[in-house]
Amino acid sequence: MGGNQTPKRSSSNNDRPAIWVGYGRLVKLFRERAGMTQMALADAIGYSVELVGAVEQGRRPAKTTFTKAVEPILNTGGVLQALQDQVDLAKLPRFFQDFAAIEAEAVSRFSYDPLLIPGLLQTEEYARALFAGHCPPLGAETIEQHVEARLHRQGMLHHDPPVALSFIIAEGALTNPVGGGDIMHRQMLALTEAASLHNVEIQVMPTTPGVHPGLNGPMVLLETTEHRHIGYVESQEIGTVVSDPAKVSAFGLRYGKLRSQALNVEESARLINRMAGDTWNSGMPVAATAP
């Protein structure tokens, strides 16, 4: 095994994803070939020289706006843009990155979320409140990177061709005041907007059914462009990609049962609309079992 071990990086680089470092080196290479200093490049694209230096050193990831600004100035031929998705992927928590790469190629995605609004449907405020409450605490820059990455993933809602998306959200996730009443009010409005998309279905699982297949926890089922069926489960920042056909089949059976026990799409939409207009608008959650 010793011959296959990954060489250790210096401690100063341990927290820098390799894609950020590689992207930064390419920026520096193109900049030097263009005969520009960091200051000259910063002035040309309207960014600070400190940010340009941080990107070149791989200490900060480039945003899409940075890449779009740099490419024509340095005549990169699209090289940096080709890396942007991987740069963004590395902003996600490490335990989630493998699944996120598979998710990006999905043609359908079904999920059950018992505790929180699913990440693909979260508002920026809701997501930031979650990351700000992380234990152990995250640094401000890490929080921003995680929020940016989560919002970037939400592009899946508007893919062309569309991805078939199904979300079953437990009642408890709708009544848990993450970030406070104002944030939850706006989150309910965002759910209403998402539910209006033709490729998105949202169902609410009320508390009244008692025993149901979702009590074992959250799960995701997706189908890739190669028509492979993949499952994913996550708890306490440990994520597991499930590819065994028998286990994925069991996930599918449970999800089908959940869909039959949850409020239907129309009932769920009425409930979410009511919560957006009455419940969280007043800052107080109410029982969400009635359609």
UniProtKB/TrEMBL annotation:
List residues of the HTH cro/C1-type domain.
Answer: 27-60
Q: Listed GO molecular functions?
A: DNA binding
Family annotation (InterPro entries):
Cro/C1-type_HTH, DUF5753, Lambda_DNA-bd_dom_sf
Name of the protein in its database record: HTH cro/C1-type domain-containing protein
A Pfam match: DUF5753
PROSITE patterns, A to Z = HTH_CROC1 (PS50943)
Question: What residues form the membrane-spanning segments?
Answer: none
